[in-house]
Amino acid sequence: MVFNIKENDFFVKKGPVFTNFLLADEINRAPAKVQSALLEAMQERQVTLGDETFKLNDPFLVLATQNPLEQEGTYALPEAQSDRFMLKTIVGYPSKEDELGILSKHRAKEKPQVVKILDMEAVARMREL
């Protein structure tokens, strides 16, 4: 909700969650209020702003990163939220050789070509399997 000074009223301005593919970076650094709002989006496929409820796009997919719980400023994800993710992959630090390989690939003079392989309808059909 955003306040319009000229109209002396609030209006809805939809944010980044209104998308098909949401990247939630460092999800476990978010405070409880943000976690709760994201859980509503993931579980109910809707967002409530003030007194209004808005359906999210279909498909609505979330890819999230999280930091180890040992790091300062991180929170454990609620079980209900963890259950909404299909898989969890733990990525460690690369070796020195792997890191050098990553750097050399990023220095390539040619930019990679982006090729469309799926559209939203195809993703929706796959979800039905």
Instruction: Give the C-level CATH assignment.
Output: Alpha Beta
- How many structural domains? 1
Strand content: 15-25%
Count up the helices: 4
Average predicted local confidence, pLDDT = 88
Walk across the major sheet and give the strand order.
Answer: 1-2
What's the end-to-end separation, in Å?
38 Å
Superfamily (CATH H level) name? P-loop containing nucleotide triphosphate hydrolases
- CATH third-level topology: Rossmann fold
Cα radius of gyration in angstroms: 19 Å
- Would you report the number of β strands? 6
Largest sheet: 2 strands, antiparallel
InterPro entries: ATPase_AAA-3, CbbQ/NirQ/NorQ/GpvN, P-loop_NTPase
GO molecular function: ATP binding; ATP hydrolysis activity
Characterise this structure.
The structure is a single chain. The protein is of the alpha+beta class and 129 residues long. It has one domain (2-95): Rossmann fold (3-Layer(aba) Sandwich), CATH 3.40.50.300. Helices cover 28% and strands 17% of the residues. The protein contains four helices and six strands. The chain has helices spanning 32-44, 79-82, 96-106, 120-127, and strands spanning 2-4, 9-11, 21-24, 46-49, 52-55, 61-64. A hairpin with a 4-residue loop joins strand 1 and strand 2 (9-11). The longest helix has 13 residues, at 32-44. The chain is extended, with a radius of gyration of 19 Å. The mean pLDDT is 88.
